[in-house]
Write a structure and sequence with these properties.
The chain is 12% helix and 43% strand. The longest helix has 22 residues. The relative contact order is 0.16. The protein binds 2-acetamido-2-deoxy-beta-D-glucopyranose (NAG). 2-acetamido-2-deoxy-beta-D-glucopyranose binds next to loops.
Amino acid sequence: MANFKTFFISQTLTLTLLFSTLVTATYHHNISPSLVRSREKLTHLHFYLHEIFTSEKPSNIVIDPPKVVASSPLPFGSQVVIEDPLTIGPDVKSKEIGKAQGFYLSATQRPGLELEIVMGMALTFLEGEFNGSSLSVLGRNKIFNEVRELPIIGGTGEFRFARGYILARTVKVDYHKGDATVEYNAYVYHYSSTSSSSHEIFNDGVQFMTDPILSKI
Ligand SMILES: *[C@@H]1O[C@H](CO)[C@@H](O)[C@H](O)[C@H]1NC(C)=O
């Protein structure tokens, strides 16, 4: 009788726990950021970006040129799509270490050379430790200023949780063609992942992509 009672109580408890787990099933949970913070790195990257409008294979193309003819090389509303090579040195033929893919928009109505663009791009690296990792950049770029600052707002791979900034400086520009070489100094906080993502069963049985480091917390 006592055994049956114990059995009954334990079964009831199990059921109650199971029931409360099901009832509280949710799509989020809190995890401690401490392990990520302890792995945080600060990296400085230095490279050159090449904007090539005039070649058999331009790396910049202007789409939908605005109908309003303004006295500006890049009238308000111009949209440019880029897939620019990133190289280790200022020479376009120096070692290519990545590429910049994205767009920029002419976002000022002021005429003349007071160009202000808004750039959005992914800088993907194709060499060494950062091969396959990318940085997301979005911000305003007043391209005729000596040094411009662009925010780094995120990243992938080795650059997960990235945040930082870029100082961009034009080192060479051909005003007739529009081709330019820009020096980039990027300073970025990020944390490194040691291996690719794994799967974890969440409490309601749904599989989420999880990070190998975060899932150990
Ligand atoms: C970069 O990674 C890709 C894909 O994993 C690989 O094919 C390529 O050889 C790597 N490049 C270098 C320079 O390590």
